[in-house]
Amino acid sequence: MSPFLPWLKLAACAALIGFAGPRLTRYGDIIARRTGLSRSWIGLVLLSTATSLPELVTGISAVTVAGAPDIAIGDALGACIFNLAILVVLDALHRDEPMYRRIEQGHILTAGFGVILIGFVGALVLLSRETPGHRLFHVSAYTPVIVVLYVVAMRAAYVYERRAAGALPPISGSEPGTTLREAVLQYAAAAAVIFAAGAWLPFVGTELADAMGWRTSFVGTLFVAASTTLPELVVTVSAVRIGAIDMAVANLLGSNLFDVLIVAVDDVAFADGPLLAAVSPVHAVSAFAAVIMSAIFIVGLLYRPETRLRGTIGWVSVSLLMVYLLSAYAIYLHGH
């Protein structure tokens, strides 16, 4: 097989996902204004779910049809660290002052739950190979715990938003003629495009690994995860352009929570036994890298640094970028 064909397919998937991203932001913001919900809540629930659809479809397809569990887990955990790396882009787009001095400190709650969920999965990646007998039928006995933790996280975020977040003012200038029903339909159409492109990605990732002679864990963590995270990147940039930075950050952190839930869904779909017992232990590197990056984000949000490197990004963003690059290099060296 020509090595160029998988790259073309990957580019096609990325183009479809990138096209639908701005529409998610546009109509998600309209839904927020029409319903009176906060942008942070819309980003945490509505946008993060829609932008994580590629990871969901990719994971299910990888474990059921493509037979590539490493791509499924690499995509889910790789998307977590890629989402946190997007914060560097978000910080760079704010040339007037560091991003961490503008966003709400309520994001600490979501980031903290991200540390719990991702760290739990990282530990399971290491432990499941040693104790594969802990299962309910073909599903890991720990998978229900992941689901419960996710529900608790979303419930806590909902309660916090009701206490702290205020409603957005009604639409006055942009999109004055768009009704709530029209916004929901347009939002669903954009989500459908992302869903279709995501279903194709695991097969493209497998072809790319074969054509280039790369390990599937590396391809899943880097290339497939980068492609399935394109909606988060596009939505982030689009949200900044309309002045909804908190919606952008909430989307990234909420996507991390949903990506961990996808691991539980993939485990149910994987018929050959507990999923985490069948994947490379190197995926724990991605999980723990995401935990470290989440902790760096929390420190930055509490400390609110003022200094920037030549007016571009601050030390928090530099630290996030370094952890991401080191984790990608480690997975390339030691992946299966």
Automatic annotation (TrEMBL):
Protein's name in the database: Sodium:calcium antiporter
Chloroplast in keyword set: no
Pfam families per record: Na_Ca_ex (PF01699)
Organism lineage: Bacteria, Pseudomonadati, Pseudomonadota, Alphaproteobacteria, Hyphomicrobiales
Listed transmembrane segments: 6-24, 44-65, 71-94, 106-127, 139-158, 184-205, 217-240, 247-265, 285-303, 315-333
Keyword flag Transmembrane: yes
Principal subcellular localization: membrane
UniProt cross-references to InterPro entries, sorted A to Z: K/Na/Ca-exchanger, NaCa_Exmemb, NCX_ion-bd_dom_sf
Superkingdom, taxonomy of origin: Bacteria
Localization (cell): Membrane
Annotated membrane topology: Multi-pass membrane protein
Domain Sodium/calcium exchanger membrane region: 8-152, 187-330
Keywords annotated in UniProt: Membrane, Transmembrane, Transmembrane helix
